[in-house]
Design brief:
By secondary structure, the chain is α/β, with parallel strands linked by helices. About 45% of the residues lie in helices and about 25% in strands. A 4-stranded parallel beta sheet has the order 1-2-3-4, sandwiched between helices. Helix 2 links the parallel strand 2 and strand 3. Helix 1 packs parallel to helix 2. The chain is globular.
């Protein structure tokens, strides 16, 4: 899905070392230089390991170099949210609880 120059990629299930290579390719291909950012929706993700976390850090850093904002949607109180708090994913990506809030934030940041 693409919302006014902001692709939204919804993921589900487990994001672990087995999915990491294809996940990296999918997320990097989701946004191009005509876009203003990327939203990664992890609402349906039940588990993420260090390989999955590393992919998100890598994607956020790479897109930042292309001047694209990255927002990640994480359900409150979930295992995924606890992992992101521990690894400080918020240092490279904007964290939200709802897709609409993430889209609005990316739009706002890009207008600055």
């Amino acid at each position: 899905m693409n919302s006014d120059g902001i692709p939204v990629v919804g993921l589900s299930g487990e994001l672990d070392i087995m999915q990491a290579p294809s996940l990296l390719q999918r997320l990097m291909a989701a946004a191009d230089n005509r876009d203003i950012g990327l939203v990664v929706d992890l609402t349906e993700v039940t588990y993420i390991d260090s390989a999955g976390v590393n992919v998100l850090f890598e994607v956020a850093e790479a897109l930042r170099q292309r001047q694209l904002e990255v927002a990640v949607v994480v359900p409150g109180g979930s295992l995924v949210e606890r992992v992101f708090t521990l690894v400080d994913l918020g240092s490279v990506a904007r964290l939200h609880r709802e897709v609409e809030a993430a889209l609005a934030d990316v739009r706002e940041v890009s207008e600055r």
